């Protein structure tokens, strides 16, 4: 197991623990565990080969941009999503909209992808249809709306090549199938919680359509 971990293999447990740590008692979403959870999800996407590289490459870029904010001079403003929104909105909505490297815009892109992953993992857990169908349905209900037709077309074709549900559950790296399914059941509500707090926060501040 150590060798796999060293090689940066995906572990569902890691993602679960990161998203568990994300939400404080005050319902703030901490950026450090959020990014940690995303790093795990990126490894999950990468372990599936090139099928998801159009999403994982973008997520890698977004995560590293946010890491830059967190580690920068203004790092203390980027402890939580809430403090980030307050900080970036202080310059005014127009200034925020004009910035392509803002934390808010960057989180919004990850947020949309998180919804797709949440729906996809939910579909894998309930396992009532082929993975290509589950993935396509999840994509159409989330990310597809933000992708140009060419990307949507390519994605849908790529999803047809997805491995079976059993192969996916094996990639989860938590032992037998039942354990993987049980852990998905545990992880999905935490991911969903982070998603809905973010959605509410961004809606409240009219940030859901940042260009």
From TrEMBL:
Q: Does the keyword Metal-binding apply?
A: no
- In its UniProt record, which GO terms are filed under biological process? negative regulation of interleukin-1 beta production
The UniProt entry lists membrane topology as:
Peripheral membrane protein
Lineage top rank: taxon = Eukaryota
Write down the chemical reaction(s) this protein catalyses: N-(9Z-octadecenoyl)-sphing-4-enine-1-phosphate(in) = N-(9Z-octadecenoyl)-sphing-4-enine-1-phosphate(out); N-(hexadecanoyl)-sphing-4-enine-1-phosphate(in) = N-(hexadecanoyl)-sphing-4-enine-1-phosphate(out)
GO MF terms, alphabetically ordered? ceramide 1-phosphate binding; ceramide 1-phosphate transfer activity
List GO terms (cellular component aspect). Answer: cytosol; endosome membrane; Golgi apparatus; nuclear outer membrane; plasma membrane
Q: Does the keyword Electron transport apply?
A: no
Domain Glycolipid transfer protein intervals: 30-173
| Keywords of the record | Cell membrane, Cytoplasm, Endosome, Golgi apparatus, Lipid transport, Lipid-binding, Membrane, Nucleus, Transport
UniProt-listed SUPFAM superfamilies:
Glycolipid transfer protein, GLTP
Instruction: Locate the coiled-coil region(s) and give their ranges.
Output: none
Q: What is its main location?
A: membrane
- One Pfam family assigned to this protein is GLTP
Its annotated compartments are: Cell membrane; Cytoplasm, Cytosol; Endosome membrane; Golgi apparatus, trans-Golgi network membrane
Give the family per the record.
Answer: Belongs to the GLTP family.
Q: Could you tell me which PANTHER family the record lists for this protein?
A: CERAMIDE-1-PHOSPHATE TRANSFER PROTEIN, GLYCOLIPID TRANSFER PROTEIN-RELATED
Q: What is this protein called?
A: Ceramide-1-phosphate transfer protein
Recorded source organism is Oriolus oriolus
Gene (name only): Cptp
